[in-house]
Amino acid sequence: MKRVGHGKGFREAKTQLSHIGRAPAEHGGMVNVPVYRGSTIISETLEEWERRKQNPITNYGRFGSPLSRALEAAFCELEGGHGSILFPSGLSACSHALLGIVKAGDHVLISDSVYGPVRIFADQVLTRFEVKVEYFHPTQHSDLLAKIGANTRAVYLESPGSMTFEVQDLPTLCAIAHHSGALVIMDNTWATPLYFKPFEHGVDISVHAATKYIVGHSDALLGIATANEQAWPLLQPSAHHFGEIGGPDDIYLALRGLRTLAVRMGQHYENALKLAQSLQQHPAVDRVLHPGLPNDPGHKIWKRDFLGASGLFGLVLKPMSKAQLSVFFSQLRLFKIGWSWGGYESLVLPVEQPKRTETIFSLNGPLIRIHAGIEAASDLIADMHQALQAACELRVSRADHEHH
Ligand SMILES: *Cc1c(COP(=O)(O)O)cnc(C)c1O
User: What family does the Swiss-Prot or TrEMBL record give for this protein (predicted)?
Assistant: First the structure.
């Protein structure tokens, strides 16, 4: 297994990102691959038509365009896979990776801290096709070992976990899966191909919400799945047979976003870690869920396997009233409330108790997901602290009020 040092990997990727997935000589010298809009691809001769029919991707727009193939090729190179394919959303990449692998009667094991909509898809759709769906403890590999069987076809991982940020021991989990003959799908959206190399750790299919850091500006939805040589013949038809295809403008925005991925990720990494460190010191904070913090339970594995961290982490506050929480959210000036993440902007999300069936995730107070954008770290820290202060002062003023 090749280990790439953080600095080295980072510098190489920066250079790579400027050059992969484009071919000016093929597009009139234009720096960027233009937007191709098209359904029909015409042939001038019977011979050309017959030649194109040999390879579906050259004969109809539903199978892609020079633009979609440029993004797929660039992404595949970054991840170190055998082939990449685009989907119209991140969730579509997740669900079709599973659909490409399983058949009726198969068993699927999914990490308990998986992205919520994947759990809903597995519970409500896969089960209708008689696929048995089971969940396992994200950080206890003995639980995977106990539940895996001869009919387990797929093991689905996500690291760190959705909302709760547990870091998974990917090499160990992949070894257990492969020993039983199962394929491993991993959601690598959080780390991006820059900070986690899925195929070096045993993953067979990596899925991404390109909507997040690849697009990077909250202005398009797109999914990408990448497979190793073994899984590619299962993954690619799963897009083609279902008629999945991204829109040309969204693909263009994703390829444009990819150019600045390394500089943006560097800033998200630094901002989130600084913010997480400063929040750890605040008296209103119970826990900060960020694997880059040395006291995080996932820190050791994160340090061993990851090359960096993104802007997304969790914050557990000490118990506070709904009124105080409301003050906290409304006092924030730079962090707005919203789904999704990975854009340049900072976000917060009030999280309900995340759905878990195999893990007990006990919360002492409100859980908040934070996305640190690419603003100045000092401004983000100041904003978060003034809003927490305002929430704390409400408690003080209420207590004063009751006293007098
Ligand atoms: C957002 C997200 C998805 C789904 O992406 P969409 O483009 O919103 O469908 C999948 N996995 C993870 C980890 C995500 O954060």
Answer: Belongs to the trans-sulfuration enzymes family.
